[in-house]
Task: structure prediction
Amino acid sequence: MRLFFILLLLQTNAFAASAISEQTITELVQKNPDLRSIRERLTASEQMKGFLTRSFLPKVTVSYGNEKYTTGPYDRVVQPFGGIEASLNVFNSGKDRLENERREKNAKIASIDESMALALITAEVRKAMSHYSFLEEVQNIMRDALVLNDTNLKNAQKRIRVGLATKTDFLDFKHQLIQLNLEIETLEYEQGVVARLISTLLGEDPTENLAVDFTNSHPDHHHNDDDSILVPTTNNSIILQRATLLTNVAQIESKHAKRWWMPSLDVYGYALRFTEKEREYPEPSDRNDYTLGFKFTMPLFDGGESIRQASAQAYLARAQEAQARAKNLEISRETQNAINKLKLAHALIHGAEDNVQVMSEYREGIQSEYAKGIKNSPDVLQASQRWIESKTNFAEVKKNYQFAKTDALYLMSLSK
Result:
């Protein structure tokens, strides 16, 4: 029975901890609050589409009310009023069409913003997971060093007992024991920070446990993983598409502003009952009014404000055009940087791996010579430290490779 409760408790804890792996990143980032906010704005932009069709639909208003008077011959008289009114936009000098185009472009921009946010958050989560894996790997290196340091402590005590070493040997290894434990504690703290960052990016409570399943793998010597990453071209990047759409919106707004003086035509009609105070007829039927008419409006002068606005919008449109060209150059630069960074990271991995092999053999040789009395404790500590540095460097270049790969995948996800 006791075993059953222990297993049940372990199972409960396992289910309580959230888990994330490379295969589930795209699914889990959907709960990110920033991404949800952008999607709500996308929905709002989609709802605003179709303005041109709606602009030619009649606008109908129904009203009803009662008025009670307290002055003159109408003292204490209560009379109803109301009716139905309708107006129809017949002509607006193309301003409705421009407004419709502007809303369509803004909806496309909102859609691109969603795709960019999803790609950016996914990349941030990948990098955070890679850093988490790096910290885990370094902790394992420190723990391996602790195991060897414990062996060195025992060997030092044996050498001291037979007179082959002094107490300083023991203190050297004792000092390293303290340093390694401090390093592990620091790494555990940093790992907790990264875990909470991942939880936040996933829209989860950072106080909850998080299980990260990720390994900083590296390409095989005989197969270059870089070839499997299709580096995007800059011509079809959605970042460039967004810059172009912003230019289009600015141009549309400039055209709209330049039409400030152009006329509009509306047709309207109403069937209303007025009060006796407004229509001095005692019979209610005589106060009914039925009207059908049109209204032609043409602005002539508004103090020059519209002219200034049109000029300002034209300058903004040209500014957006220049920004789009700058964005194209920026994307091209970032793409080339991603390619070269990935190649460099791949090359450094193999050099760091070879260095680990050399330092492992060197450390073993020093350990053997120490056991024979040829080397002393500083030599052993130096060999151990160089081994730790080589292993840590290997872990770091693998992490850097994953970072470079993530950047390349991010740019690729923005190419459609």
